Amino acid sequence: MVIHELPFSSFPGWEPVNYLQPASRIMTREKIQEQITDQDPKFHLTEDPKEEKENLQLNSESPPGVLRQTSHSQGDQALGKITGPPTIKLIERHQGTRTVFKKFREMKWPLDIHPLNKSLVKDNKWKETDVAQETRRSFLQEFCKKYGGVSRPQSHLFHMVSRIYVEDKHKILYCEVPKAGCSNWKRILMVLSGLASSAYNISHDAVHYGKHLKKLDSFDLKGIYTRLNTYTKAVFVRDPMERLVSAFRDKFEHPNSYYHPVFGKAIIKKYRPNACEEALNNGSGVKFKEFVHYLLDSHRPVGMDIHWEKVSKLCYPCLINYDFVGKFETLEEDANYFLQLVGAPKELKFPNFKDRHSSDERTNAQVVRQYLKDLTRTERQLIYDFYYLDYLMFNYTTPFL
């Protein structure tokens, strides 16, 4: 698939118009701003349902916008060691927490974007990659400047950074976008942090379930804000339609002890008339059209999942200004250039192997068209509408409509 990196000014008036929809469905500037600054955490199911946040909680009993930190949170470190009678401890801790959250409210949002430090890049071969990178950065920055408004998050900071992985040695923040090379990126982070000697020796389960890597939401507010402002922040994205088909193939076309019973059964029950008892019992055999109906349903029978959630809701790119915007379509070049920028060992290269189902053809434009041929034009348009913000933010064309 050819990806066209269009300059921001190439869109007439830069007023996005959905020509296939009636005027009442045109995405207005106000609607885009609302989506960009919406912090409400969506209901995401996790492939590891036992995984819980041990050190941070959203307090459902507190007033809206109030975050609670449990007693063993790293947030206590920011408040200092408190001694004295229990009542005094409680008062001082409460005052300390208020101070920390006051600082959060005073933070400057969106975060400033910093020029990339290119002093460690010695080769001239990265010239084209660098030009593409600067184009993407400036495009996203201009888009956010025009549509992001001046809103700052009032709550849910820990949710906003919950997909961001931390590598302290090379000062890297990587926002995980599933189906956009995230497994191999986590392998790279494990090598950089000294947890492994080679990216090629790390299994899929060790990458995703080993819990070796730190996430940004495991730090206190000071630790989060300091890293956001001083580390190199990277996000890697993918054409939304291609990413969606890739997720469907991975989770529903192969045996899966989580996605079939949790998502498959609910999808078949609601969207397949006269489903057989076997399908209802095991959730296997979900059709792509049924999956699309689930995705577009405002009353989904089961929650969203990070593998097909919008990047704008995973990484908040108009509030967290990313220093590096990589694309799956140029993954190896972008990733290896990024490794040069952060001073990674010269021998470390981004792995190009397929993490799972290695015998399957990679999901590309041709494969996507095979899946979309069973959808109506309206259904294809509605998928585009669903990922509208991702298409705009990252300057993707819409070749499948």
From TrEMBL:
EC annotation from Swiss-Prot or TrEMBL: 2.8.2.-
Assigned keywords, A-Z: Carbohydrate metabolism, Glycoprotein, Golgi apparatus, Membrane, Signal-anchor, Transferase, Transmembrane, Transmembrane helix
Chain intervals with Basic and acidic residues compositional bias: 36-55
Gene Ontology cellular component terms for the protein in this record: Golgi membrane
Localization in the cell: Golgi apparatus membrane
Coiled coil spans: none
Region (Disordered): 36-83
Enzyme class: transferase
InterPro entries, per the entry: Carb_sulfotrans_8-10, Sulfotransferase
Biased composition (Polar residues): 56-76
Tagged with keyword RNA-binding: no
Main location: Golgi
Keyword flag Cell division: no
Membrane topology classification: Single-pass type II membrane protein
Family: Belongs to the sulfotransferase 2 family.
UniProt-listed PANTHER family: CARBOHYDRATE SULFOTRANSFERASE, CARBOHYDRATE SULFOTRANSFERASE 9
Name of the protein described by the UniProt record: Carbohydrate sulfotransferase
Gene source species: Canis lupus familiaris
Lineage: Eukaryota, Metazoa, Chordata, Craniata, Vertebrata
